[in-house]
Design goal:
It is a single chain. The chain is of the alpha+beta class. It has one domain: Transposase IS200-like (Alpha-Beta Plaits, 2-Layer Sandwich), CATH 3.30.70. 40% of the residues lie in helices and 11% in strands. The chain has nine helices and four strands; from the N terminus they run βαββαβααααααα. The protein has a four-stranded antiparallel β-sheet with strand order 2-3-1-4. α1 runs antiparallel to α2. The chain is globular.
Length: 230
């Protein structure tokens, strides 16, 4: 049975998950994480995309990216994949693949779901019981989005910027979102959409994507109404 093509649309956020082959280790030492971030930085500049959140775990990567064209994300992932694998294989005198054959990519309806995806990505080490707070994890975008580290590579999405509408800074308001975990229903929605590379959003958003790609795409199960602080 042929695999379904991935869906990419210009200017629509995409939640990407790339796992190690057979869930094996992709990062062995701190310098590996740093080199991956260099690869990511170079690739998104070269292929015209904006990175809003990221997380590098031992055996997988989460990225929240908005591409400027339908080809931006495939070009970015191919560039990072080739360059990083060459680096790891040379450094550790290994051969063969490092990543699973297909990364997963879920288009995101920005208005209701984007901040939830930020939280889902940056809370992953907490859910994995690696740290108690995302601030403690070194290899994520949390400290940048929370205003703890300088904003260099990451771009502020307009949904993020609106967090400061009540005269708080967006970064302060963003930190306050993390006072509670995401609801299990919402986590389930995000995971199901990413697992099957389905759009995550309202029915009208999904219909918009179907019209754009000219095919039926299936629908992720809808949960309860969104509660970003829940």
């Amino acid at each position: 049975m042929p695999r379904k093509p991935r869906m990419f649309q210009a200017n629509i956020p995409c939640n990407i998950i790339s796992r190690g082959s057979n869930r094996s280790t992709c990062f062995y030492a701190p310098e590996n994480y740093l080199f991956y971030l260099v690869c990511l930085n170079d690739a998104y500049i070269r292929y015209s995309a904006s990175v809003h959140a990221y997380l590098l775990m031992t055996n997988h990567v989460h990225l929240l990216i908005i591409p400027s064209s339908k080809t931006s994300i495939p070009q970015i992932m191919q560039s990072i994949g080739r360059r990083y694998v060459q680096y790891i294989n040379k450094k550790y005198q290994r051969t063969g693949t490092l990543w699973e054959g297909r990364y997963r990519a879920s288009l995101i309806d920005a208005e209701p779901y984007l901040l939830a995806c930020y939280k889902y990505i940056e809370l992953n080490p907490v859910r994995a019981s690696m740290v108690k707070h995302p601030n403690e994890y070194l290899w994520s975008s949390y400290k940048v989005n929370a205003g703890i580290k300088p904003r260099r590579q990451l771009v502020m999405h307009h949904v993020y910027q609106r967090l400061g509408a009540d005269h708080k800074s967006p970064s302060l308001a963003y930190k306050e979102l993390f006072s509670q975990e995401l609801s299990q229903d919402l986590i389930g929605e995000i995971q199901q959409a990413s697992t099957f590379s389905l759009p995550l959003g309202s029915d009208s958003f999904k219909q918009q994507i179907e019209l754009a790609v000219k095919r039926k795409i299936g629908h992720a199960k809808r949960g309860r109404p969104l509660k970003l602080n829940g």
